[in-house]
């Protein structure tokens, strides 16, 4: 959860990975701090708003109820029509808008919808909101990069010993291992990087509640992400599983050696990032 200042109004942003939700209550406060719920309801009962939110849900929410949506859309425009965020969510199964209780309670909406609401409140306010939101995301990305570098620094001392390097550098697979057929593409990647399947790792670690990838360090996870992309490319090319495994294993060995060498260079130079 973060706060951004938009033309003197504090707006709450809730980050949830890929999706960010912005407080409609805070945006409405820019127009009238005493009647935020009334402002949101007025916007919700607008036919254009309902059309926009319905299309957004159809694009992003597989559980959206189109039948209930059509019923609400037909009522829009009538003098007696009233729509609240709670009713919209309960009737259609919408995920683009949510209501929260407690200290940071209020009505929140996915950034796509929040920007639309801000435009209805004030075009000028919307532009400033987008600008401050982008500034917030840039700051978060910079912090994320710093966190990754800091975590890599913490494991530098471990990856310089020969014993640890033996565990980090993937083993060269035998011809017999390469010709085996694996149940899933995930296990294909596990074999390429770790030299074993998820089941083999669980059998070797019966007391561990996690899985083989939970125990991977940052360098291995970076390598794994690269292998996933490369494997998708190989599949598109039509390469057989055995050939893909051989190539992925060779790539994993090469990349992990580079990662270890790079970490060793930073350590010898006394760098902390």
**Helix content percent band:** 55-70%
What's the helix count?
Answer: 13
From the N-terminal CA to the C-terminal CA, the straight-line distance is 27 Å
Mean pLDDT figure? 82
Number of domains: 2
Strand content: 5-15%
Description:
With 273 residues, the protein is an alpha+beta fold. It has 2 domains: 2-142, no CATH class; 157-269, no CATH class. The chain is 63% helix and 10% strand. It is built from 13 helices and 5 strands. Strands 1-2-3-5-4 form a 5-stranded antiparallel β-sheet. The radius of gyration is 26 Å and the shape is elongated. The two termini are 27 Å apart. The model is unreliable at 156-167 and 264-273 (pLDDT under 50).
Summary, kept brief:
The protein has 273 residues and is an alpha+beta fold. The chain has helices at residues 24-31, 36-44, 47-60, 66-75, 85-92, 111-121, 123-156, 162-168, 175-179, 185-194, 198-204, 218-237, 241-269; strands at 2-6, 9-16, 19-23, 97-100, 106-110.
Draw up the topology in text.
Elements: E1 2-6, E2 9-16, E3 19-23, H1 24-31, H2 36-44, H3 47-60, H4 66-75, H5 85-92, E4 97-100, E5 106-110, H6 111-121, H7 123-156, H8 162-168, H9 175-179, H10 185-194, H11 198-204, H12 218-237, H13 241-269
Antiparallel strand pairs: 1-2, 2-3, 3-5, 4-5
Helix pairs in contact: 1-2, 1-6, 3-4, 3-6, 6-7, 10-13, 12-13
Q: Which key phrases capture this entry?
A:
alpha+beta; 273 residues; 13 helices; 10% strand; 2 domains
